Amino acid sequence: MSAHHPHDELLVSYAAGTLPETASVIVATHLALCPACRKSVSRAECIGEALIQDIAPVRMEALALDSTLARLDEEQPSTTVAPPVPSGDPLLPRPLRDLVPQGLQALKWKTLGGGFRYAALKADGAGRLGLLEGQPGKATPHHGHHGDEFTLVLSGGYTDELGAFARGDLQCGDSTLMHRQVVDAGAACLCLVLTRGGIRPSHPVLRLLARFLPF
Amino acid sequence: MTLADPSTLTPAEMTARLVAVGRERDKAAFAELFSYYAPRIKAYLIRHGAGASQADEVAQEAFITVWRKAAMFDPAKASAGTWIFAIARNLRIDSIRRGRRPEFDPNDPAFVPDPEAQPDDTLEAEQMRARITDAVNQLPPDQAEVIKLSFFEDKPHSEIAAKLALPLGTVKSRLRMAMRRIRSTIEASS
Ligand SMILES: [Zn+2]
């Protein structure tokens, strides 16, 4: 069971359907692993329904019901099938797996040095979504971001100033978060990360390096 | 077809109609649900920036989806209104925002299922809906306002904060307070 969860406002925005796609992917992937947050989302959906009950209805066009009834026996479009789980990969939950249909090895990985590599998946108004993998025992530089930094652990684990993070845990940091993530010994750590705003290293020398970091 | 005035149906009766649509392909029950919810979905879509005729089309499309998916509706998990709202929300994202709604898949091998009995599982979905509706109606106005804007404005909380001329932190803390109130109402009464 996860120990670190998204804040309520993120779950409410997911339930309301107002998050950009990248942020929805990271929230929905956490939800696949976290029954407690699924419960919060279904409560938030009840709130949405209560609010809809409250708005003044707008009359449908005269033939709307008849033309809908006339379409009910139309053939159904086929539904999409889940992509297979490539052998050897950690089990990526849907909807994340839909973004990695050929498996992890087929992604374009960029070596970051220091035992880390990064593969970009998608970018939009919420930020850049990608996979970050760190080798056992390796650490990121002490850093922050000029915006939100969300990290969802998919396999292995890491520890920083705020705690220990394992599969299913979602760390939601804002621009005030400064941390150094140390990968647990024993296994590589794979994380889904959503970052907004450039990296903010604590040490001036690292600022130069930051220009080369893609996330 | 003559129908009962759907506005006189209780939420529990709505849920029974949706079950009838799923199990018996009951078109009269479908028409009742349509008459009640389609004009509300249309209003919701207009609030999200759709034109009247697009909102009409998407509301009809939502009901085609209701028909197709009704067999999967589980009255133990959601009331009819909540379930129909979720369909309308997803179609809004597809058609008005032209995006995609990423969702978890309960049949996925990586999906972590719900643990068996949980304290408030004894609350029926319908009771849960009723209590949450009461709690929403009793929110202090400042909390109710941010909750409403969160559902009816397709905007990040930073833009909602700008619109209300409030710091982002205030908007977030009002939302968290509202959620905490709603949660404690559910827990106090279960
Ligand atoms: Zn959670």
Commentary on this structure:
The complex is a heterodimer of chains A (215) and B (190). With 215 residues, chain A is of the alpha+beta class. Chain A is 28% helix and 27% strand. Chain A has six helices and twelve strands. A six-stranded antiparallel beta sheet of chain A has the order 1-2-3-11-5-8, covered by helices on one side. A three-stranded antiparallel beta sheet of chain A has the order 9-4-12. In chain A, strands 7-6-10 form a three-stranded antiparallel beta sheet, with no helix packed on it. In chain A, helix 1 crosses helix 3 and helix 2 packs across helix 3. Chain A starts with 7 loop residues before the first helix and ends in a 5-residue tail after the last helix. By secondary structure, chain B is mainly alpha-helical. Chain B folds into two domains: 95 residues, Orthogonal Bundle (Rna Polymerase Sigma Factor, Chain: A); 56 residues, Winged helix-like DNA-binding domain superfamily/Winged helix DNA-binding domain (Arc Repressor Mutant, subunit A), CATH 1.10.10. Helices cover 65% and strands 0% of the residues of chain B. Chain B is built from eight helices and no strands. In chain B, helix 2 packs across helix 3 and helix 3 packs across helix 4. The longest helix of chain B is centred in the last third of the chain and has 22 residues. Chains A and B meet through helix 1, helix 2, helix 3 and helix 4 of A and helix 2, helix 3, helix 4, helix 5 and helix 6 of B. Zinc ion binds next to helix 3 of chain A.
How would you spell out the order of helices and strands of chain B? HHHHHHHH
The overall average pLDDT of chain A, rounded, is: 86
The count of domains of chain B is 2
Most residues in contact: chain pair? A-B, 62 and 77 residues
Based on the coordinates given, report the CATH architecture of the domain at 103-212 in chain A.
Answer: Sandwich
Reported for the largest beta sheet of chain A, the result is: 6 strands, antiparallel
Poorly predicted ranges of chain B (pLDDT <50, ≥5 residues)? none
Alpha-carbon Rg of chain B, integer: 18 Å
CATH architecture title of the largest domain in chain B: Orthogonal Bundle
Please describe the biggest sheet of chain B, giving its number of strands, its sense, and whether it closes into a barrel: none
CATH superfamily of the domain at 103-212 in chain A: Jelly Rolls
What hetero molecules are bound to the protein chains?
zinc ion
Q: Which outline of chain A best applies?
A: globular
Oligomer: heterodimer
β-sheet strand percentage of chain A: 25-35%
The secondary-structure class of chain B comes to: mainly alpha
* C-alpha termini separation of chain A: 28 Å
Low-confidence runs of chain A: none
The rounded Rg of chain A comes to 21 Å
Task: Please report the total strand number of chain A as a whole number.
Answer: 12
